[in-house]
């Protein structure tokens, strides 16, 4: 089964990418977590493995040690981050759904990286606000990954721009929302219209944010990579 949703419109090409360059290098515990996630009714929400590979590359290039994860689900991107950062690295991860996190937890434990993770069972906004109450946290994070409720992406962005250091990176997932951002509204199902509208507004706002260097990518369901410039 392919990770879903997928912007890349050729399943054959995606299969080629995954089978040639991604699956052969995917850690065994990540594979196991991905297979366990596939049994979840919302299993399609797990981060696409090719997106994961890119995130791991960014983490390595940044030498990231301290990261934030907004939206954990069963923890594919969380385990991937924990496997990539150093032994004394730390991830603050937040999600109100602890049950989903517990599906991934045995694989996180098996990988021996649980000590790097501070999972907070909560919506992310109050946690980010709490972090900002302590001035020491400002500009102290190397990396953030946002893959949660799309209506709050801009709220997360404003907070992450203060928590991440200059030169740090924040990655936003699902920014092309199944390709709907490029379709006329009437061609999009009712269920997807609100998310399309939110994605359009977020993408436009971020493209105008002069504090950042950005890259819009058509990988997975669309990804925006931002580097904080000032
Ligand atoms: N990155 C995850 C992975 O690799 O499997 C996938 C995350 S999934 C697409 C979105 C998650 O966002 C869900 O687990 C959901 O519970 C969580 N979520 C929804 N609202 C949230 C909020 N206000 N704060 C934090 N997480 C939230
Ligand atoms: Ca996602």
UniProtKB/TrEMBL annotation:
SUPFAM superfamilies: S-adenosyl-L-methionine-dependent methyltransferases. GO terms for molecular function: methyltransferase activity. GO terms for biological process: methylation. It comes from Flemingia macrophylla. Belongs to the class I-like SAM-binding methyltransferase superfamily. Cation-dependent O-methyltransferase family. This is Caffeoyl-CoA O-methyltransferase. Methylates caffeoyl-CoA to feruloyl-CoA and 5-hydroxyferuloyl-CoA to sinapoyl-CoA. Plays a role in the synthesis of feruloylated polysaccharides. Involved in the reinforcement of the plant cell wall. Also involved in the responding to wounding or pathogen challenge by the increased formation of cell wall-bound ferulic acid polymers. Keywords: Methyltransferase, S-adenosyl-L-methionine, Transferase. The keyword Cytoplasm does not apply.
């Amino acid at each position: 089964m392919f990770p879903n949703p997928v912007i890349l419109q050729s399943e054959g090409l995606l299969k080629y990418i995954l089978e040639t360059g991604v699956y052969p290098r995917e850690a065994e515990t990540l594979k196991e977590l991905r297979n366990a996630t596939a049994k979840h009714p919302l299993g399609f929400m797990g981060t696409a493995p090719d997106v994961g590979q890119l995130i791991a590359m960014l983490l390595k290039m940044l030498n990231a040690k301290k990261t934030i994860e907004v939206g954990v689900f069963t923890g594919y991107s969380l385990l991937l981050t924990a496997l990539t950062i150093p032994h004394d690295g730390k991830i603050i991860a937040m999600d109100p759904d602890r049950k989903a996190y517990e599906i991934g937890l045995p694989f996180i434990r098996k990988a021996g990286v649980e000590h790097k993770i501070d999972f907070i069972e909560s919506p992310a906004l109050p946690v980010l606000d709490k972090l900002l109450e302590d001035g020491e946290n400002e500009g102290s994070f190397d990396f953030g990954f946002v893959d949660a409720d799309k209506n709050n992406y801009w709220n997360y962005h404003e907070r992450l721009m203060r928590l991440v250091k200059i030169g740090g990176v924040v990655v936003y997932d699902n920014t092309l929302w199944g390709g709907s951002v490029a379709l006329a509204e009437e061609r999009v199902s009712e269920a997807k219209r609100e998310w399309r509208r939110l994605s359009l507004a977020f993408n436009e706002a971020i493209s105008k944010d002069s504090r950042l260097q950005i890259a819009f990518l058509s990988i997975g369901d669309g990804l925006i990579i931002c580097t904080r410039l000032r």
